[in-house]
Structure formats: C-alpha cells, structure tokens
Design brief:
Radius of gyration of chain B: 30 Å
Oligomer: heterodimer
Radius of gyration of chain A: 27 Å
Largest interface: A-B, 48 and 43 residues
Number of strands of chain B: 13
Strand content of chain A: under 5%
Largest sheet of chain B: 5 strands, mixed
Strand content of chain B: 5-15%
Helix content of chain A: over 70%
Number of strands of chain A: 2
Helix content of chain B: 40-55%
Distance between the termini of chain B: 81 Å
Number of helices of chain A: 23
Largest sheet of chain A: 2 strands, antiparallel
C-alpha cells in the first residue's frame, strides 16, 4: 500500500486536519475554562435568550395564556403601527429622553468632584454615602417622592411657598383671564408653527428631522455621481419599506414581513459597504417612521429625503468639499437650534394652567403639571450606579495625563472639558444606553403614580405602560410582544447610534 | 510588621494580628449567607417530606386583603384549625399568604400557569382566569358541596365557648331547631346566596367558596363635623342677606328652572334641624358647599367636603352611572335579560340610539363634576391611603369607601392619640335627587344590591397535592362558629346564614330593593372595551377637573369609538374570537364528560342535567357564530369587521 501523501491532500482534507489538530487541541488546553463557562452560557441561553426569542415568535400570534395561541401574521404589528395611543406615548418618551440626557450631567459633575477629592478617606465616605440609598427599595423611594408632590401636605409646595417661588411660577403662568409671561410667548410663536412648520414639515418631529438630515448629509461626501445616486436610491428605498410593507400586508402578511425584513437587511448591508458613517441613515429612517406614524403620513419622509438629496447635488455642483461641509454643518445646527427654541417657545407652556394662583398646584393631578413633575422627579438626579460607573472611568485616567496638562497650564475647567469628559465617554455611553433602555421600557413609576390609563388625558402613557396594560390588563400578550419588538428595534437603533458617536476619540 | 492581606499596607506592631473592618464585613456576609442557606434547606426539607416521614403538609391560602383586621382574623382562625386534633394528627398546617391588590393578578396568574399556585386562593376573574380556563386551574366543588359541613355539627355550634363568645358580643342566642337543621343542611345551602358566588355560569359548575363579603360601597361621614357644619349652615339660612353660595344652591326651582341643586322646602328645614346626614343629592351638594364655606370662614384651607382620590372619584362615577341611565333599559335591552350588555350598548351607539348629547348623559356628567368639585385639589394624584388619612385626620367631612375599609375607618377615628381629635363615623348610602330637586326628572331610582356578586370566593388549586385538606379548611372557615368569629374580628360582613354581623357593619348590608344591576349604560367598563375605555377615562379626568368642556370630552371619546382598528367595530371581531374560545372549552368539557361516562359505562342521574345544559350552550354557540349573525341582523349592508 503506498504511503498517504498528506502534503498533496485536498483543501477539505486540510481543513479537517486543522479542525482535528488545532481546534481540538486548543479546546483540550482550555477545556477546564470552557467547562467553567458552560453553566453561565447555558443559563444565559435558557433564561435570557430563549424568552426573548419566544417574544419574537409570539409577536406573530394572538396569544392569551394558557390556551389561546393562534397565528396572526403581521396583524399585531399593524395594530401597533396604527394605534394612536401607542404613538402618542412616544411624545412623552421624546421629552423624557431629552430631559434624561440633561439629567446625566449632575452625575458626571459629582463623579468628577469625588475623583478630585484629595483625601482618600473622604472619598471613601462619600462613595459609601452614595451607595447607601441603593438599599432603599424602589417602591419606598417612589412613595416618598409621591408624598412630596401632595398639593396640600407635600414638601414641594411648602418649599415653593416659603421661598417665594410660587409667586414667580404664578407670574410665569398666570390665569386664563390674564395669561402669564410664558403663554404670551407661545402666542407670539404660534403663527410660525401654523403657517410654516405644519405645511412644510408635517409636525414638530418633521422639523427636527429636517435638521438631522442636513447634518447627516455630511456623510455623503462621495465624489462619484453614480455611487451617490445608488446611495440616494438605497436610503429612499429604506424609507419606502414601511408603506410598501403595510400595502402588501393587506394581501399577505407573511410576504409583507419577508419583503420588509429582506429590504431592510439588504438596504443596510448596501449602505454599510458604500459609506463609512452609514448607521445614521437607518436611524433617521426609523425616526422618520416614528415621526409620521401618528398621522400615517409615511410618504412625507421619502419626499423630505429626495429634497435633501437635491440640495446635496446642488451644493456638490456649486461648492468644493470643505465649504460644502461647513454649510451643511452650520445649516444643520442652526436649524436644530431654531427648532429647539421654537419648540420650547410654543410647547413648553402654551396655555396658563391657573394652578399656582391658590398656592396648591396639583403636580400629579393636572395634565399640565404631570410631565414637569415627572421631569423634576429624583432631583438632583445623581444616580448612584451612574456615579460609580463614571468614577471607575475617571480612576483609569493616568496621573501622567493630569501632570502633563498641569505643565501646559490647563485649569480646573479645562481639565474637565478637555481631559476628564472626553476620556470617560465610554462610561457616558454605557449610562446613555442604560438610560435609554430604562426610559423606553420603564413603566412602574407611571403605573404607581398615574394608574394604567396614564392619568388625565392619558398624558402619562409611555410605551412600557401601554405594553403592560395590553398584556396584563387586556390579556393581549401577543400584541404586547409586538410592541416589545418595536421598542427593541428603536433601542437597538439608538444604541448603535450611541456606539457610533459617543466614544473616546483615540 | 505585617502586610495587610487586603490593603497591602503594613499596620500595627510586628506579630500582632490586626482585625480589619473588611474581615468583619466578610464575616457578616458569610453568616447571612449561611443562615439563608439553612432556611432554604429547612424549607425544602419541610415541604418535600411526607407526613409519614415526619414532615408537615403545608396548605397555603392566598388573598389580597391588606386592610387592618382581615389578616389578623384569618390568622386566628388558622391557629384554631391547626390546633384541631385530627389536623395535628395528620401533621397539616395552614399558612396565610397575601400580596397587594395591584399585583395580585400577575402573581396568581404566573403561579397558576407554572403549577406553583397556593392550595387556596381568592378566585378573581381576569384575562387568564376566565370561563374557558377556570376548570384548568381550579377544582370543581360540585361533588363536595352537596354534603353537610361537618364543622356545623352541634358539638361545634353548641360548644359552651362559642355560646359564651356570642353572648359577649351581644348576639341573640341561636335557636336549637335552626342548629339541628344547619347540621343536616348541604354545605351549599349554608351560604346566604346559596353559593352563587362560587358558581360559573359558563361551565355550570362550582369553583369557589365565598368566606365573607366585600360589603357595599357607602359614604362615611364625620359625625362631629356634621353637627358643626349643620349648625353653621342653619346660621347662614337665618342671616340676611344670605351668602351668595347658599343663594346659588337654592336657585333651583321645581320644574327645572335655575342653576342650583334644590328648592327651599319644609323638608330641607326639617333636615337642617335634625342630626341626620344628607338624605338627598340636593342636600348632599348643599352640605358640601357649606363645608367649603365653613373651611373658608374658619381659616382651615385644608378642610374639604369629600376626601378624594382617583379611585374614590371612580366610585362616584360608577355609582351614579346606573341611576342616571336606567331610562335607556327599555331602548337597549333587546334580549330582555335584565341587562344592557356590552353589545347592546355599543351597537346602539353605532346605530345612533344614544349619544353623549342625550339629556341623561349630560345630566350624569354634570352631576359627577359637581360632586368632584368638592374633592381636594389634585385628587387624581392622590391614592386611596392618602384619602383615608385625610378623612381620619379630620380634614374631610366625608369619604366614599367599601366595606373592606370600614374597620380601618371606625377604629382609626376612635383610636387617635389626642382625645380631642377623635370623632365618630357614620355611614350613609349614596344620595339620589329628592322630589323637585335638580336631576330628579332623570334619575328613576337606585339599583338593587341583592344580586351583586360581592363575596370573596376561595378556589382550590387543581394541581394542589393537598386538595382534600384545602377543602376541609374551607369547610372550617365557613362553618357558622368560625365564619361568625372571623368576620366579626375582621370587621367584614359574614356570608353564612345565622351569623351575627358586627354592629358597625349594619349600614353596609346590601339593599335588596331597586332596579336590576344590569340596567346601566356601562360606558366605563374596562373589561369589555379596553381601548375606547382607556381614552374615555383619560378624557373623563380632564373633564372632571374642568380642563376640557363637556363637548370637547364627548368629541374626543366619540372619535375614539370611530377609530378603524381600535374603535367599536373591533369589539365585534374580539367577541367572535372570545366566543370561539369559549365554545372550544365547552366542547372539551363535554368530550371529557363523555369519555368519563364511556369508561364508567353509565351516567349518574345527577350528572345528566349539567351535561344537557352544557350541550345546549355548546350547540347555541356554534363556534362563535352568534356575533356574526347579530352583526348581519343589525348592519345588513356592511361586511363583518375582520382584522
């Protein structure tokens, strides 16, 4: 029998050998470690991944445990996308997300202050003091805050009265007969909203979206026209997927699901190959769907995109790369700044509430004060876990960096803005992701404070509460799963966005 | 010098062992962990061992009654049961579990589905425990309730300790003939409602044993404040000129003219000179206005007429909906079942048989808004406990609450540390407009409370390994001596015949006179029409607080009714699905019965009626086709809504 010539073996045989010789040998080396990891991985698969996969599956069912489980195709998703109350809940979420981003700042400042404490002992004591409140159960915390807001006996109104702030608030608010300062400002700005924003952008969300699209255009600095056109087509195609999917679902839900999913994956894959900073286009498309879902005005988004791409083409013809980028950046930021100012002017305090005249504003009982009360909740917004995460990041900054900065004459504020803040961006991102997940899925506070209907005018209805209500009060578990999947996609999009933009610049 | 094992620093003199605080902390954690392990081990050992092996048989009973008195009374009865010789011989021990009302459904549903539910639990209808699934989770009790309750034997009912306790509470002695009859009576017949509360009409079977009643919802008032304010009110009547608020209240003239609530009449003056609480709705609102004026005059800006919260506002909303909408019964009760059911109400709206512009509804909402104007500011942000606290602190003249809060209110008002702050509490029914008062032409009367399902039925978990002991404990708990003792201690109304209620509970007994309970345009019932009712409630609170007008409220609610996918048309589709599900569960039940008969090769005579009724129900339901037939009948030109 001739000897087997290993050198001349086929590629598949070589792979087999590699598998046998390298892979299993390596496994053998680390088998104890793999064995140690096995319980964790197994329990993670069983307790973390399996329920989540089950949620995906059940979102296509009419599911009412223990006995009802009928396949419903995309009906749950269609119900969700056309449910006015669900989309109304995102208005509050937008406000909460914006406010919660600002609420991260006190935590960062406190962590930096703690980090800069010279005495180790005092730093330790403060850290312990920050950890102690974690021991207080969340429910107790909630009830304590609720009692603060009691109109007659609560601490907040007493403090406002004792400090004269109640009079200031009344001056800002006024009454229906004689409106205060802020409602008058809203009256001045109102015509702009009616005559410009409504017809051109559909709603406030559309106005903000236009600014974001202008900023995102900077990523389309592609010299070849043909490639640019393909990118324009891909983004517009993504924006058209939802109306297309809904139209198809009238005939066949499964086909609609398949087409939408395949289109989405294909579009994203194409964009990722064409562009370096591609992620904000899918995020913008998702945001656009959210913005126009309430009015089912889905074709406004492709139109806005086409207009933006025309502007881009015109700029490409007229300007070179550098000034073009500057024009887009300035235009985008100015647009967003104006949008924020106009939005606050008209929406912050559009009408007098008349709550402050008697000195007993009903913080949790009035539709106008519910949202401010929720925003003020937890003042001074220094979360224990957040501070500890920032501290861990700060402690990783090398002493050499501080010494070098001192030699360069950097002051305390410079240290904060140029060294500490940029170097803890990884920790900021972690907190941002936690905060986003918490804001989008949280409902306990709203349930306890306002009930499952979201209080007066359903003003306190958030997506998490809506999901809870559908599942546990109305027994529509399959529908609740579909709502959860929509939230999951939104959170995933935001997390990818954070990963792309919130990070330490190497 | 010794290096510290944790900090790495060198501390203390060489050779001396230094006790670092970290070691103390670690030791505490280890001790706590070891203690927890021991407890878990002990619990597992206890629950896994059979009584034959020296272990205990634990029977767990679950409810959500956290009001003071109930748990303590239950504990006392459990202790009595656990001390019984045959229970001790069998090494059985009953243990009580309780969770808050808000999370009760979730807690129970999860455990029912996962097979770990307590042996006994209060059966509460929800989207998981419903007719179709009731038989899956709870044991049928039909076979057991036909026999007499052994704990109603004379050796228990004539026991000297029991008789002595009865005389100590002032209860009349029990007739020996009645006791003899009770001893022989089927268990089912010993309940005041013949156990209707434990019966499921869909499955034609008994799945629960009521042990007490929730008691009716009533108005509780501060007697001390009542006398003070009535004296103040009488003084205002005799002052000249009368204050504007009083003139406004009395502006209403019989026949419908004026904006106030009631005309000045001899009955009104007679009430003023008496010690009675308000007898009519007009007097009630006049009294509320007087409280407000009294609070202003006495400089007590915290005093309000009604201690309110969202839940209490809902109590008023739900109570007055019936009396104001009884008049719709002759229009909407198409199937003559003494109820305006969900489909009759919503179909009638779709066919424009009623609308929010009708006088009865306008009057109803105006009335509830007038009442809500006497709640404290921001009442929607207050919870039930805050409302109870306000009433007990003497800062509210009245509060609406159910029988479950009665004990807390009576005891709380009398057991205050400061004797001057103590007051007595009275109970009154919700008042209706008196003759000639505002809204008297709309309100035709009150609903009866006689057939109201107000019992607290405990069901036996089907997978329980201790079913017979669980039933035995229920027999004990619902025997005359124990149920009387339990409800008396808890301050609840008893549910078995012959039991003497606590004297303070007399005002909470159901009133059997009035219109059928179903004669009510139930536009706020969440169980029937989730999405539209969510919008209804949200807008209702805005209206109640004066943040929107009635017309704005009506427009918003009616636009929610018209929504394509989440509006009223959806209810028809949902009903088809529910009917189909119930039909299938009945079919399953019938198949199971037939299989049982087949293997037994015969049917017992007492089993036939239930089989026939179930078969008839099943034939009528025909896979949920009823809703489609009704739709075709009501809307012949429109296709059935499919989603």
């Amino acid at each position: 029998m001739p000897p087997i010539a290993l050198e001349s073996s086929s590629p598949s045989t070589a792979a087999l050998h590699w598998w046998r010789d390298v892979f299993w040998r390596k496994i053998g080396c680390w088998q104890v470690l793999y064995l140690l990891m096995l319980p964790t991985i197994a329990s993670m698969l069983v307790f973390d991944y399996y329920p989540k996969l089950d949620v995906i599956l059940m979102s296509f069912y009419r599911w009412q445990p223990p006995d009802i489980q009928d396949y419903h195709g995309l009906k749950n998703y269609e119900d969700a996308l056309t449910d006015p109350l669900f989309w109304q809940s995102f208005r509050l979420i937008g406000i909460l997300l914006a406010a919660n981003i600002l609420k991260l700042i006190p935590g960062i400042l406190v962590a930096i202050a703690l980090h800069r404490l010279l005495s180790d002992r005092w730093r330790y004591i403060y850290q312990v003091l920050f950890v102690i409140p974690m021991v207080i159960p969340g429910m107790v915390w909630l009830l304590i805050w609720k009692s603060f807001y009691d109109p007659d006996f609560g601490l907040l109104n007493r403090v406002l009265q004792a400090t004269g702030m109640m009079k200031l608030l009344h001056w800002l608010d006024g009454t229906k007969e004689s409106p205060g300062v802020l409602p008058r400002v809203a009256d001045w700005v109102e015509p702009f909203q009616q005559q410009v924003i409504q017809p051109l952008f559909g709603n406030w969300g559309g106005f903000f979206l236009a600014g974001a699209i202008l900023l995102a255009l900077r990523s389309l600095q592609v010299p070849e026209r043909a490639r640019r056109t393909r990118i324009y087509a891909a983004v517009t195609g993504l924006a058209l997927l939802l109306p297309l999917g809904i139209t198809i679902s009238h005939w066949d839900g499964l086909t609609a699901c398949f087409v939408s999913l395949a289109g989405w994956v294909g579009g994203c894959r194409f964009l990722s190959r064409q562009l370096d900073r591609w992620i904000h286009w899918p995020v913008l498309v998702l945001a656009g769907w959210l913005v126009f879902a309430h009015t089912r005005d889905f074709f406004r988004l492709p139109l806005m995109l086409l207009f933006a791409f025309s502007v881009m083409e015109w700029l490409t013809l007229c300007k070179s790369r550098e000034p073009r980028e500057q024009i887009l950046a300035w235009g985008g930021w100015l647009h967003l700044g104006a949008a924020v100012l106009l939005f606050l002017g008209t929406q912050l305090w559009p009408e007098p509430t008349g709550q402050f005249r008697e000195g007993t504003p009903a913080w949790l009982g009035s539709k106008d004060l519910v949202i401010p009360a929720i925003l003020f909740w937890g003042f001074p917004w220094v979360g224990t876990v957040g501070v500890l995460i920032y501290l861990s990041g700060l402690q990783q900054i090398s002493q050499d960096v501080y010494e070098a900065a001192e030699l360069d004459g950097v002051g305390p504020l410079g240290m904060l803005l140029r060294i500490e803040l940029p170097l803890i961006m990884t920790q900021v991102r972690i907190n941002l992701i936690f905060m986003t997940i918490g804001t989008l899925t949280g409902y306990e506070m709203f349930l306890i404070l306002l009930g499952s209907d979201g209080g007066p005018g359903n003003k306190g209805m958030v997506p998490g509460l809506f999901m809870f209500k559908k599942a546990f009060e109305e027994g529509q578990f399959g529908y609740a799963c579909a709502l959860g999947m929509i939230l999951f996609v939104i959170i995933l999009g935001l997390t990818m966005f954070y990963n792309r933009y919130v990070k330490v610049e190497k | 010098m010794k290096e510290h094992p944790v900090s790495g620093k060198y501390r203390g003199r060489p050779g001396k062992i230094v006790l670092h605080p970290n070691w103390v902390g670690l030791a505490l954690v280890l001790v706590a962990f070891a203690w927890s392990c021991l407890q878990v081990f002990r619990h597992l050992r206890e629950s896994s061992r059979n009584p034959e092996d020296g272990g205990k048989r634990i029977v767990r009973i679950l409810h959500w009654q956290l009001e003071p008195g109930y748990r303590e009374a239950m504990d006392k009865v459990i202790q009595r049961y656990n001390r019984l010789p045959h229970v001790q011989a069998a090494k059985v021990e009953v243990r009580q579990m309780y969770v808050a009302d808000r999370v009760y459904n979730q807690f129970l549903n999860v455990h029912l589905i996962s097979g770990t539910a307590p042996d006994l639990s209060v059966r509460r209808s929800n989207k998981v425990v419903r007719t179709g699934t009731l038989g899956k989770f709870y044991e049928s009790l039909a076979d057991r309730i036909a026999d007499p309750n052994p704990y109603n034997h004379r050796r228990y009912t004539e026991a000297p300790e029991y008789q002595a306790w009865r005389s100590s509470i002032g209860a009349p002695p029990l007739d020996s003939e009645f006791l003899a009859e009770l001893e022989q009576m089927p268990w089912r017949s010993t309940f005041i409602d013949n156990m209707k509360n434990g019966y499921d009409d869909g499955l034609k079977d008994y799945f629960g044993v009521p042990v007490s009643t929730f008691g009716m919802t009533r108005l509780y008032y501060n007697r001390n404040l009542l006398q003070q304010i009535k004296a103040y009110l009488a003084a205002q009547f005799s002052s000249m000129p009368r204050p504007a608020w009083l003139q406004h209240c009395l502006e209403y003239q019989t026949g419908g003219a004026g904006e106030g609530y009631l005309p000045e009449s001899p009955e009104l003056h007679a009430w003023l000179s008496s010690e009675a609480p308000p007898q009519t709705l007009g007097q009630f609102l006049l009294y509320c206005e007087a409280v407000r004026a009294f609070a202003r005059a006495s400089g007590n800006d915290k005093l309000v007429a009604i201690s309110g919260s969202e839940r209490i506002a809902s109590v008023f909303r739900d109570f007055y909906l019936g009396p104001f909408t009884i008049s719709y019964a002759h229009l909407l009760d198409w199937d003559w079942d003494y109820a305006m059911n969900e489909h009759e109400v919503w179909t009638a709206w779709m066919k424009k048989r009623w609308s929010y512009q009708d006088k009865p509804l306008r009057d109803y909402f105006a009335c509830v808004k007038a009442i809500a104007s006497h709640f404290p500011p921001g009442f929607l942000g207050l919870d039930r406990d805050q409302a109870l606290r306000r009433f007990l602190s003497g800062q509210a003249a009245m509060i609406a609450a159910g029988g479950w809060d009665a004990a807390s209110l009576f005891r709380g008002a009398q057991q205050k540390k400061d004797p001057r702050a103590r007051f007595t509490v009275g109970v009154m029914p919700f008042p209706l407009p008196g003759p000639g008062e505002r809204w008297s032409d709309t309100v035709q009367g009150r609903h009866m409370e006689g057939d109201y399902l107000y019992g607290v039925p405990f069901g036996v978990y089907k997978q329980s390994p201790n079913k017979e002991w669980a039933v035995d404990f229920l027999r004990f708990l619902t025997s005359l001596p124990q149920n009387e003792f339990f409800t008396y201690e808890a301050g609840w109304l008893p549910f078995v015949i012959g039991a003497h209620p606590h004297p303070t509970m007399r005002g909470l007994q159901p009133d059997p006179n009035g219109f059928p309970v179903g004669y009510k345009l139930d536009i706020s019932n969440e169980a029937t029409a989730g999405q539209v009712v969510t919008v209804f409630k949200g807008q209702f609170w805005l209206y109640l607080q004066g943040e929107i007008t009635y017309d704005e409220f009506a427009t918003k609610v009616e636009s929610a009714y018209l929504q394509e996918r989440s509006g009223l048309r959806r209810i028809w589709y949902n009903r088809t699905l529910t009917d189909q599900q119930e039909f299938r569960s009945k079919e399953r039940g019938l198949s199971a019965m037939e299989t049982d008969y087949f293997f037994r090769q015969g049917v017992l005579p007492q089993e036939m009626p239930r089989y026939r009724v179930l078969l008839m129900d099943s034939l009528q339901a025909v896979n949920g086709i009823e809703a489609r037939l009704l739709w075709k009948n009501y809307f012949p030109d429109q296709p059935f809504p499919e989603f």
